[in-house]
Amino acid sequence: MTRHTVxxxxxxxxxxxxxxxxxxxxxxxxxQYPPDRIGERVAGDALFGSAASQLGEYFAGERTAFDFPLAxxxxxxxxxxxxxxxxxxxxxxxxxxxxxxxxxDRALAQSVGQAVGHNPxxxxxxxxxxxxxxxxxxxxxxxxxxxxxxxDLEGKDTLFPPEPPG
Length: 166
Known about the structure:
Elements: E1 2-7, E2 14-19, E3 22-28, E4 40-41, H1 46-59, H2 76-86, E5 94-95, H3 96-102, H4 109-117, E6 130-131, H5 144-154
Parallel strand pairs: 1-4, 5-6
Antiparallel strand pairs: 1-2, 2-3
Helix pairs in contact: 2-4, 3-4
């Protein structure tokens, strides 16, 4: 049974989507690639409560990793990319080209970019940690201001919390 809820965050409302006992989506509002199915809106769901609590800790700078079940679904290459994204450490960065090489073929860079852009579980599967070859901000399904905010939030040299995108 697919279900969803909406939570507040410093980057605007986030829609959480779940199937059975795993989170299958975390979408910005608006989101470049919204979910196909969201199911019934629920409140008081244990999985959503855990996700909301952990996201709150992340935004407060108290959490660097998430520990609830994830179930992103997509084409095989996309799922391989998403599994790799989860391994990028908090505050870390990787380029699309580096991801393509790790997956076995530099020529996959454009396909890797598509997979990153279609990540259904934003923030938790940290697609914001993927940058251009020169370290520049590149496309992001939640918009570049949100990507910059998330990268600043995770920045090791940031003395003050970043300003929410507005």
